[in-house]
Amino acid sequence: MQENNKQESVSSIDIIREGRINKAQELRDKGINPYPYKFNKTASAKELQEKYKDLKEGEETTDRYSVAGRVIAIRNSGMFIDLMDDSGKIQIFSHKQNIDAEKLKLLKLIDIGDIMGFIGDIRRTPRGELSIKAVDFEVLTKSLKPLPEKFHGLTDVETKYRKRYVDLIINEETRQTFKKRSLIIQKIREFLAQRGYLEVDTPILQTVASGANARPFTTHHNALDMDMTMRIALELYLKRLIVGGVSEKVYEIGKCFRNEGIDTRHNPEFTMIELYQAYADYNDMMELTENMVAYVAKEVLGTTKIKYGENEIDLTPPWDRKTMIGAIEEYTGKDFMSCSNLEEAVKMAETIGVNTAECSSWGQVIDAVFEEKVEPSLIQPVHIIDYPLEISPLAKVHRSNKRLTERFETRVNGWEIANAFSELTDPIDQRQRFEAQALAKANGDEEAMEIDDDFIEALEYGMPPTGGMGMGIDRLVMLLTNSPTIRDVIAFPTMKNKQ
Predict the structure, then answer these.
(1) Is the C or the N end of the chain the one with fewer CB within 10 Å?
(2) Is the pLDDT of residue 225 over 90?
(3) What pLDDT score was predicted for residue 444?
(4) Which domains, from first to last, does the chain contain?
(5) Are the C-beta atoms of 488 and 309 separated by less than 8 Å?
(6) In the chain, what percentage of residues exceed pLDDT 70?
(7) 224-234 b/e (C-beta count within 10 Å ≥ 16 → b)
(8) What is the pLDDT of residues 190-219, one digit of tens each?
(9) How far, in Å, CA of 44 to CA of 67, rounded?
(10) Positive or negative, the Cα torsion across 310, 161, 202, 300?
């Protein structure tokens, strides 16, 4: 039965559900709990497939195991059952020669989707299928809803994301994506642990929305009678920890929340890693970023050369480096460094067809031109360095050009995957940058930062020279799993209400 099939009436689902409820009651009437408490599983499908890969066709053993999983196929009135667990599939052979006749009748009450436990001996059928020759079984969960027809998978995208549990049951590719996601995060932690980084936790509920240019979600704490926001970045509390000296290297992997639109690369709730290293600068962060991504790719995929869509991407370090101004000139022929003010930059942008109506500074014009004319072409990994001062309120002024900052963003496949700075450690300069942001916010820029007085006070106690980097975990997982949308790598993405 096809999930969400428009030709299928709700009543037919109800009929199937009612039939399964009746089967569950029939089990109870026979003294069998269709939802028991535990089952002693001794082996997974994958373990058995690997251990007995050399077992010859038609050969039987007396090696006994108990397996458990979801029924995904039933053939010959239950004589052959395909059982799937989180590692793979194994066939169950149920025959009256091996199972008590009365118990065997219970198989008539079993449906595709039920979770079952089987006990039996290993054999390989004459057709070459590794099987459990069952001597006993137990109903572990009676499924009331039917799975999509013939186990071919979900075709309705809305259902795929809204009912991820069904998608995971049906689609092996989906299960593998989330297993890789877990492994990617594990390998990031492993990489940083090898380099002496300390993993920490910082608040999700905050009183000031800062650390990024983004519109926050707001809430209210009743007991304290105070408005709060959900964090838009991890940055400022991690820097407080650098000030405090808990470690010279700290990082956090955590959820952030931005009240923004949804597209293939954006979800309002997303996972980030941010890390900070004392006595380092943005050059050190470039090296760390490319080495971390290459390490993870090698560990998870076995290679640093990956395929995303139609593109072959080589993640092998070192990665290319281009200045933002230089990259724009390379792709457009225009040198925006020659523009001394906003008006000149707007005129130059207009000559190449870039709309700058929402730009209020030279730096914002540069950013708009780069995003439209350069970014989509950056398929191979590259660090775009030296961003304008106006759009980098948390980065140090460039040591050789006061119009720029020591900031880079890493681009792969035309996406930003990392953002990093030589961190601003001068509290006076930081307050002035925040004040400029607050003015922009007062003038209608909802994504401008607020002034965080406590953070500035922390800087006044003294923060060492520091390099910092933030990376979107979801986008990295997209890249390493060849997933076309961020919804494919977030188990439960934000969805619009059906009504």
Answers:
(1) C
(2) yes
(3) 86
(4) 12-141 (2.40.50.140), 172-319+380-488 (3.30.930.10)
(5) no
(6) 96
(7) eeeebbbbbbb
(8) 999 999 999 999 999 999 988 888 999 999
(9) 6
(10) negative
The DSSP bridge partners found for residue 422 are: 467
Any idea how long the chain is?
499
- How crowded is residue 96: how many other Cβ atoms within 10 Å of its Cβ? 11
How high is the mean pLDDT of the chain?
Answer: 94
Please tell me whether residue 90 adopts helix, strand or coil conformation. strand
pLDDT band of 440, cuts 50, 70, 90: confident
The whole-angstrom separation of Cα 99 and Cα 110 is 16
What letter does residue 41 receive in the DSSP assignment? -
pLDDT at 446 over 90: no
Q: What is the C-alpha to C-alpha distance for residues 106 and 118, in angstroms, rounded to an integer?
A: 13
Strand partners, 306: 313
Cα separation values, 403 from 18, 127, 374, Å = 71, 73, 21
pLDDT band at residue 429, thresholds of 50, 70 and 90?
A: very high
423, β-bridge pairs: 395
Q: Evaluate whether 352 touches 369 at the Cβ level (below 8 Å).
A: yes
Please report the pLDDT score of residue 151 as a whole number. 41
Whether the Cβ atoms of residue 334 and residue 352 lie closer than 8 Å to each other:
yes
CB atoms within 10 A of CB 126: 9
* Confidence grade of residue 75 (pLDDT, cut at 50, 70, 90): very high
Continuous segment of H or E residues that includes residue 373: helix 362-373
Please name the residue that has the structure tokens 């933030």.
470
Dihedral angle computed from the Cα positions of residues 442, 426, 384 and 216, in that order, rounded to the nearest 10 degrees: -30
